[in-house]
């Protein structure tokens, strides 16, 4: 009887420790998946009020984010970077969040739609001056940033290899790889090259 009781206790202890191991392994895997979906920690550029082009350099040459027009409801698209004309004014709106304003009409900002993977996931929309609508705010994280102690000259770069995540949705701007198509909003992944952009000060 005593032997059976000891064996039962041993079996229970083994089952308990096995459950702990499985739980720890599962927790680690879940943590790994979630961390892979987060924007990677990095530096935040200081734009010092200068308008910028948000550019991507890939196998198809240098592209930039632009707009189909300077009106509310216009789509954010990818376009060939030809004339060095700034498209946006990136303005700090808090400790870590930014507004991405249309350079021509600064009352319009880049705004995330409710259906992130649909065409035209990002549009121009009138800025919400109350700050209540978080879909107009963006979090930036770059691998390298210009030293704010020294002015960035025209043609210089404020930040390189930057991810741009929407504050409300937690998704990153990602080009589709087809020139002229609107970018999508996708889960942030540090290993996704189509989520990496540079912020270039234009010649103004």
Major sheet details? 8 strands, antiparallel
What is the global morphology?
A: globular
Distinct helical segment count: 1
Please give the share of residues in helix: 10-25%
The total strand number stands at 12
Assembly state? single chain
Low-confidence stretches: 5-40
The largest beta-sheet arranges its strands as: 3-2-1-12-9-8-5-4
Strand-pairing-aware structural class: alpha+beta
**N- and C-termini, Cα separation:** 90 Å
The averaged pLDDT comes out at: 78
Strand content: 25-35%
Report the C-alpha radius of gyration, rounded. Answer: 23 Å
One letter per element, helices H and strands E, the order comes to HEEEEEEEEEEEE
Care to describe what's here?
InterPro entries: Ricin_B-like_lectins (IPR035992). There is one protein chain. This protein starts with a helix and ends with a strand. The radius of gyration is 23 Å and the shape is globular. The chain has one helix at residues 2-36, and strands spanning 52-58, 61-67, 76-80, 88-92, 97-102, 108-112, 122-126, 138-145, 157-166, 171-174, 184-187, 197-201. With 204 residues, the chain is of the alpha+beta class.
């Amino acid at each position: 009887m005593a032997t059976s009781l000891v064996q039962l206790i041993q079996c229970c202890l083994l089952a308990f420790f096995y459950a702990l191991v499985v739980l720890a392994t599962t927790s680690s895997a879940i943590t790994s998946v979630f961390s892979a979906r987060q924007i990677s920690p990095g530096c935040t550029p200081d734009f010092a009020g200068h308008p910028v082009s948000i550019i991507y350099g890939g196998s198809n040459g240098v592209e930039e984010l632009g707009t189909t027009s300077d009106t509310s409801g216009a789509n954010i698209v990818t376009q060939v970077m030809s004339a060095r004309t700034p498209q946006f004014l990136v303005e700090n709106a808090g400790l870590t969040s930014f507004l991405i304003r249309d350079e021509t009409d600064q009352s319009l900002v880049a705004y995330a739609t409710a259906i992130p993977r649909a065409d035209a996931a990002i549009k121009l929309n009138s800025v919400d001056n109350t700050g209540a609508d978080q879909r107009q705010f963006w979090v930036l994280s770059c691998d390298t940033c210009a030293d704010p102690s020294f002015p960035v000259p025209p043609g210089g770069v404020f930040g390189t290899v930057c991810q741009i995540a929407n504050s409300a949705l937690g998704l990153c701007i990602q080009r589709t790889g087809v020139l002229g198509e609107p970018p999508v909003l996708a889960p942030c992944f540090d290993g996704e090259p189509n989520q990496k952009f540079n912020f270039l000060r234009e010649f103004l």
